[in-house]
Design goal:
The complex is a heterotrimer of chains A (144), B (114) and C (111). Chain A has 144 residues and is of the alpha+beta class. Chain A has one domain: Histidine kinase-like ATPase, C-terminal domain (Heat Shock Protein 90, 2-Layer Sandwich), CATH 3.30.565. Chain A has helices spanning 21-32, 37-57, 86-89, 99-103, 111-118; strands at 5-12, 60-67, 71-79, 121-127, 131-139. Chain A has a five-stranded antiparallel sheet with strand order 1-2-3-5-4, with helices on one face. In chain A, a hairpin with a 3-residue loop joins strand 4 (121-127) and strand 5 (131-139). Classes of the chains: A alpha+beta (144), B alpha/beta (114), C alpha/beta (111). The complex binds adenosine-5'-diphosphate and magnesium ion.
Chain lengths: 144, 114, 111
C-alpha cells in the first residue's frame, strides 16, 4: 500500500484575506491521513509562515504538497523580489516588511527562523529580482 | 479555567462556541503578533490579542488554539466567525485593554505558558 | 511607584535610559501594534511589547510613556537603545512572556 499524495495551490501576493488557505488545506489532508499531531502542527506552522511570506513579500506563487509514507514535502515557489542575502534573512528580527504588514500581525522577522525550527529540513534558493523557492521536508517517523 | 468563567471575569461577549462553555484552558498567551503566537507549542492555550483579522483565526487554526479573546473592543467580522466555527474555535470579544484583560485573568489564576 | 521600584520588584533588566528611572508610573499598556499605541496609550504608562525597532522609542517619547518593557528575552536594536538614552525613557527587558509580566505588573499597580 504505497500511496503518494500531491496537491498544488496558488497564492496571490498582497491578498492577506486568503493567506493561510493552502496551509489550512494541507492541515486537513494531514489530519485525514492520521499523521502524528505534533508533526502536523510543526508542518502547518512552517507552511503557513512560508505562505504568509509569499503574500507579504512576493507577487505570486504556488505551494506544492507531496506526501508518502516516509516524508512530507512542501515547496513554496514564488515570483517576486527574491532575497538578496539569505543568511541575513534567516536572522531573527531581520525584516524588510512595511508597517502595513506589521499592522497585519506579521513582519517581526520571526517567520523564517521559526520555519527552520519547525522543519526537519529546510532549503532556500533565491534569485534577486525573480523569485524565491523554499523547500520544507518533514520525516513522518515520530521524533523521540 | 472554563470559557464561561473567562466571559464572566472579563464581562465579555461570546461570538461563537456556545457548545464549548465548559472547554478549559490551562494557560494564556498574549500577543498582537501572529509570528509570535506561532512560536508557542502548548495545548489548550488561550490567545489574548488586539489583532482581529482573518490571520488571527488562521494562526489559531495552525497552532491548535481553541479559544481567542479579542481585547481593545476589537470586533470580529462575520467571515472570521465563519472560519472560527469551521475549526471549532471559541471567539470572545472584550472591551478592556490587553493590559487589563491579562491582569484580570492572571489574578483569577490563569497561568502563563512554561 | 517609580520605574526604578518596578525594575526592582519585577527583576527587570535595564538596557538604557537609566536617567528616566525616577519617572512615576500611572498604569500599563500592552501592545505590539505601533499605531494602536499611538492612538490609545496614555501618558505615564509602561508599555509592554516584543517590538524592538527604533520606532518604539519615538512613540514612547511622543506619548510620554514612563518606560518600555521588552518581553520574551528580546534585546533592543542599537538605535532603539540610543534613542532611549536621548529621551531618558527607560528601556527594560524580561525573559517572561507578555501575559506573565503584564499579570505581575497589574498586581503591583492595583493590589
Ligand atoms: N518569499 C519571499 N520573497 C522575498 N523576500 C522574502 C521572502 N520570504 C522572506 N523574505 C525576506 O526575508 C525577511 C525575513 O523573513 P521572515 O523571517 O519571514 O520575517 P518577516 O516576514 O516578518 O519580515 C523578510 O522581511 C523579507 O525581506
Ligand atoms: Mg515572514
Amino acid at each position: 500500500m504505497s500511496e503518494t499524495i500531491t496537491e498544488e495551490y496558488s497564492v496571490t501576493g498582497g491578498d492577506f484575506s486568503r493567506a493561510g488557505y493552502a496551509s489550512s488545506q494541507i492541515k486537513k489532508i494531514l489530519k485525514r491521513m492520521d499523521v502524528d499531531k505534533a508533526i502536523i502542527k510543526r508542518t502547518v506552522v512552517a507552511a503557513y509562515e512560508g505562505e504568509v511570506n509569499i503574500v507579504a513579500h512576493a507577487w505570486s506563487g504556488k505551494i506544492e504538497f507531496q506526501m508518502d509514507e516516509e516524508q512530507i514535502r512542501i515547496i513554496l515557489d514564488d515570483e517576486g523580489p527574491g532575497i538578496e542575502d539569505i543568511e541575513k534573512a534567516m536572522q531573527e528580527g531581520y525584516s524588510t516588511a512595511t508597517s502595513a504588514i506589521r499592522e497585519m500581525g506579521f513582519g517581526a522577522g520571526m517567520g523564517l527562523p521559526n520555519m527552520k525550527k519547525n522543519a526537519d529540513h529546510m532549503h532556500i534558493e533565491s534569485e534577486p529580482g525573480k523569485g524565491t523557492k523554499v523547500e520544507i521536508r518533514m520525516e513522518r517517523m515520530v521524533r523521540e | 479555567m472554563k470559557v464561561k468563567e473567562i466571559i464572566r471575569i472579563l464581562d465579555a461577549r461570546l461570538l461563537c462556541g456556545e457548545d464549548q462553555l465548559d472547554y478549559t484552558v490551562e494557560m494564556a498567551f498574549a500577543s498582537d503578533l501572529m509570528s509570535d503566537v506561532l512560536t508557542q507549542n502548548n495545548d489548550h492555550v488561550l490567545l489574548i490579542t488586539g489583532l482581529a483579522n482573518m490571520q488571527t483565526i488562521r494562526t489559531a487554526e495552525m497552532s491548535d488554539i481553541n479559544c481567542i479573546v479579542f481585547a481593545r473592543n476589537k470586533k470580529a467580522t462575520p467571515e472570521m466567525v465563519e472560519l472560527a466555527e469551521e475549526s471549532d474555535i471559541v471567539l470572545i470579544e472584550c472591551r478592556y485593554s490587553l493590559f487589563k484583560t491579562c491582569g484580570l485573568l492572571y489574578q483569577a489564576g490563569v497561568k502563563p505558558i512554561f | 511607584m517609580t520605574a526604578a521600584e518596578m525594575v526592582n520588584k519585577l527583576d527587570l533588566q535595564v538596557f538604557s535610559g537609566e536617567k528616566g528611572l525616577d519617572r512615576e508610573i500611572s498604569g500599563g499598556y500592552m501592545s505590539d501594534l505601533l499605531s494602536d499605541v499611538m492612538g490609545n496609550a496614555d501618558e505615564g504608562q509602561v508599555w509592554i511589547t516584543l517590538q524592538t525597532h527604533k520606532n518604539v522609542m519615538a512613540i514612547a517619547s511622543l506619548k510620554e510613556l514612563a518606560a518600555v518593557i521588552l518581553v520574551n528575552g528580546h534585546k533592543p536594536d542599537d538605535d532603539t537603545a540610543a534613542q532611549s538614552n536621548e529621551e531618558d525613557i527607560p528601556l527594560l527587558g524580561t525573559s517572561m512572556s507578555a501575559f506573565d509580566i503584564t499579570g505581575k505588573l497589574y498586581e503591583l499597580i492595583y493590589k
